Amino acid sequence: MKKVKIGIIGCGYMAQMAHIPCLKANKNAEIVALCDFRENVTAELCQRWNIPDRTNSVDELLAMDIDAVYVLTPVQWHLSNITAALKAGKQVFTEKPAAMSGASVLELKKAADTAGIGVSVGYMKRHEANIVALKKIQAESDWGKMLFIRTHSFIGEHWNAAIEDLITPVASEESPVFDAAPLDPAPAWLKAERDETFYSFDNPYYALLDTGCHSVNLLRHLAASEPEVQSARNMSEVKLVDFNFSGTPGVMEFCLNFNMDRWDEVTELYFEKASVRILTPPPLDMQASAVVEIYSEDGTLHRNIQLEDNRQWAFRLQTDAFIEKVLTGNNSSDLEDAGKDIAIIEKIHKIEKGV
Fold first, then answer.
1. pLDDT score at 167
2. Helices 78-87 and 102-115, interaxial angle, to 10°?
3. In what order do the strands lie in the sheet with 228-235?
4. What are residue 194's DSSP bridge partners?
5. pLDDT at 23
6. Can you give the CATH number for the domain in which 157 is found?
7. What distance in Å separates the CA atoms of residue 201 and residue 210, rounded to the nearest whole number?
8. Residues of the domain holding 21
9. Does 130 lie in the same domain as 45?
10. Is the overall model pTM greater than 0.90, yes or no?
11. How far apart are CA 267 and CA 125, in angstroms?
12. Are residues 137 and 256 located together in one domain of the fold?
């Protein structure tokens, strides 16, 4: 079978710890080249992973004989990088979120429609084998109306499963001179100078967008409904958001707390005749999957089902799905759906700031 030739733009932490290992594990994928302005990083990674070519130019990468591009740069570069890849006729996988604003996603969607190419966005939790199985079980069951949905995501220092104790990422002190011109301008209503602080986790909007989008996306996926943001508040660095999912209340509890190691993420759904509890593992725990607990009632039959940890890493399942998508000529796109996540993030931040 023909292998999918991959070029990677951006060789930072997630590229090294998740995407490159998963692509190298897929027998139908071949990483042809890496692109990053830090030449020492690409040189070492090419040697470590036996990758034949590297460049510090996006244009040079896109001119190579490649079928698809992985955009793994920080979110402020996604608009520029994805647009360039689409114009070059390449299939695109991008890390989440797709862009910095709903307006920017619309630009990407226009570019994708013009090119006739879909863009896949990296919400790997949708590929969790047990979450896929849960959706199938739910579709085949009569649980009645959903009464409540909640996600609790408290992210500690070990969000990466302490993987750095085993694998040292290739780093560099080299940094480019800051230039906002090629960067995603972000929502126009954010009245702040587009400087280095704006494009960092010191900007509360950036931090929520980059990390909270996972929680929003998973809630929408499980509820199968689009929510209205009812209220949002930030107390003691904890974000509490109330949603209305077409008459069903929902809650998001979100906190970045790197003073503690623990990763604590659970999503719960309550129905008239069932309840579901999903425990999702740290994203970089390569040998762990979500555990799903299902309680349901059918007359006098009361059942507890547990979908156990099956050691299938969501990142690897996501990679396999993208490679299969390219091989089969599937041009479906995640951009419209991804734009809905960003619109919700914008609404949450607007309410918090009284905009």
1. 84
2. 10
3. 228-235, 238-245, 248-256, 146-155, 264-271, 274-279, 291-298, 301-307
4. none
5. 98
6. 3.30.360.10
7. 9
8. 4-123+317-333
9. no
10. yes
11. 12
12. yes
| Cα gap 210→225, rounded to integer Å | 22
Residue 181 Cα distances to 59, 71, 119, 178, 340, angstroms: 17, 19, 24, 9, 26
Q: Check which CATH number belongs to the domain holding 29 and give it.
A: 3.40.50.720
214 shares a domain with 272: yes
Asked whether 317 and 302 are in contact (CB, 8 A), the reply is: no
**Helices 213-223 and 335-353: crossing angle, nearest 10°?**
120
Tokens linked to 29: 């994928």
Distance between CA atoms of 179 and 245, rounded to whole angstroms? Answer: 41
Looking at residue 174, its pLDDT comes to: 84
Alpha-carbon torsion 58, 61, 63, 67, what sign? negative
* 189 and 97 inside one domain: no
Instruction: At 120, list the tokens.
Output: 């896949």
Residues 211 and 249 in one domain: yes
Q: Report the SS3 class of residue 85.
A: helix
How many domains, in total, are found in the chain?
2
pLDDT at 346: 98
Low-confidence ranges of the chain (pLDDT < 50): none
97 cis-preceded (ω within 30 degrees of 0): yes
Q: What are the angstrom distances between the C-alpha of 156 and each of 105, 257, 291?
A: 30, 5, 19
Instruction: Count CB atoms within 10 A of the CB of residue 64.
Output: 15
CA atoms of 113 and 251, how far apart (whole Å) = 35
State how far Cα 257 lies from the chain centre: 20
Residues 210 and 273 in one domain: yes
Classify strands 301-307 and 291-298 as parallel, antiparallel or unpaired.
antiparallel
Do 54 and 154 fall within a single domain? no
Which residue carries 């593992």 as its tokens? 281
Q: Any idea which residue has 């408290």 for tokens?
A: 154
Would you state the pLDDT for residue 194? 97
How far apart are the C-alpha atoms of 311 and 97, rounded to whole Å? 26
198/346 same-domain check: yes
